[in-house]
Amino acid sequence: MDISTDQLFKEKGDGLTQEKYEKIIALQQKHDAEIQMLSDECQLELAFIKSIMKDNREPAPKKTRSISSWNTFQTEWFKKNKIKVTTPGAQKQCAEEYALLNKEQLNSFKNRAEELSENRFNKEPKLIESIRLRKAELNKQICEIRKLYRTLQITCDVEFLTLVIPLSKELNISYFGTPVGEEFYKSCLKLDEIHNSFYHFSCLKKSAKNEIIKQVTFQKDIEDITMIESADDQLSIIDKECPNSKNARDKVRKYLQEKFNLITKERIPYKNWYNQTKYTIIGWPEDVLFCNYSDLSTEDKKKILSNLNNIYFKINNLSE
Length: 320
What we know:
Blueprint: H1 3-12, H2 18-42, H3 46-56, H4 69-81, H5 90-99, H6 103-121, H7 131-156, E1 161-164, E2 174-177, H8 179-187, H9 189-209, H10 218-225, H11 231-234, H12 237-241, H13 246-260, E3 279-282, H14 298-307, E4 312-315
């Protein structure tokens, strides 16, 4: 074992042995060989392939170091003496005073360091159980990301649009980004249609990661979920000429519910529609009250049937 490898074992720790180290190196060599084969097959540069893999891989968990008694003493010393860390000779003076501490003082700083370390470890990311607190945290972080987006918009001349797809029914689908990105979302009908697919795909990927299932096939999911028949396919000429028929009523209800389910798993709240602020309906005739199809007059039903293809729902951006 050379000096550099020996130093590596000391730095990494966590039970790293020569045998384990050799297995890691062997896996790395196999990995490099497979990338080389892929490079030859696709006629792409190695660096290009590696850059894509780096951008898409899951970040490795970072090991948080414990706070030591020296760290605690050092922090308090600079704060107490009102000296900057960069002041010449300050670090040396601090170290000299630390060396003069007696056993009781050292134990005191050690106990405080252990308490600080424990509090820091308890702040490791984990699911927030309270829905109210989860919403508050989400909105808080979205505000911070918005600031970053605005900065990058100026410095890098880019636009952003982010979809927020919750995996639990307690939260609603939302979106945010730069003003241009949000304006594009509001005017682009296709984005409304991918929400449900994205939700199901995310659930499948999460299950695969947790080894509940072994493989995710996205194309089938897309075909099953997003390819909702157009209104013209669902409503025959007879339906349009007979707006009061049971067949027309059932097909309109089904079509509207399918469009609504692209943004949420809930039922359309017809009775409380004008008391809620979560959703907006686009394309519904302005002179027709939004309600259950069967409650409309014959003339209003005809207006709905002739305009059904242009009707869709959207999530209001509640994070603003």
